[in-house]
Amino acid sequence: MKNRTLYLSPAVATFTCIAWAFSVATDYDHKVDFSHYHTYSWLGVKAGNSLWQDRIIAAVDGQLASKGWTKTASGGDADVSAFGRTTEQDTMQTFYDGFPGWGWHGWGGGTATTQVIPERVGNLTVDLFDGGTKHLIWRGQASDILSSKPEKNNKKLENAVEDMFNKFPPKGKG
Question: In what side-by-side order are the strands of the sheet with 39-46?
Fold first, then answer.
């Protein structure tokens, strides 16, 4: 029985990590010196509803404030824009009954049932533009930021935005 427990534990741990996983990517203009930016203004947020708009603004404001940037009503060194989108995609789950094994005619002995399960997927893009030239200087993107449990969505959003700004601002030119 101990061996079975050892084999199941990594599988359970992997499933748990996958259930909470989201993907974050960032890119920036390598010619820009980010040390010249200290203030920012919001251009706008589009995110389906005002609850999500407010959550996105709060998460991004918190990260920029932690980097020493100050929010201004208008005329900041940088302008921030965010776009959140929710889509639905189908996930296939297959369940096996019985234990398939190798027989005289190949694999057999088990049956499989496949279900199509609709799943909501959330994506967020945050753009920073130079306040004077309106040139895009930084972009952060996060995908799979929605949980199947609505009460966990706010925490997933916060964690995704935190990861997005983890290495922000980029160090120097180059």
Answer: 23-28, 136-143, 111-130, 78-97, 39-46, 70-71
The DSSP line for 75-126 is --SEEEEEEEEEEEEEEEEEEEES--EEETTEEES-EEEEEEEEEEEEEEEE
**CA dist., res. 127 & res. 172, Å (int):** 19
Which top CATH class is 22-164?
Answer: alpha beta
Q: From first to last of its 174 residues, what are the pLDDT tens digits of the chain?
A: 444 333 333 333 333 333 446 789 999 999 999 999 999 999 999 987 788 899 999 999 999 999 999 999 999 999 999 998 765 555 556 655 555 555 555 555 566 666 655 554 578 999 999 999 999 999 999 987 766 667 788 888 899 999 999 999 998 564
Burial of 35 from C-beta contacts in 10 A (0-12 / 13-18 / 19+): exposed
Cβ 40 vs Cβ 71: under 8 Å:
yes
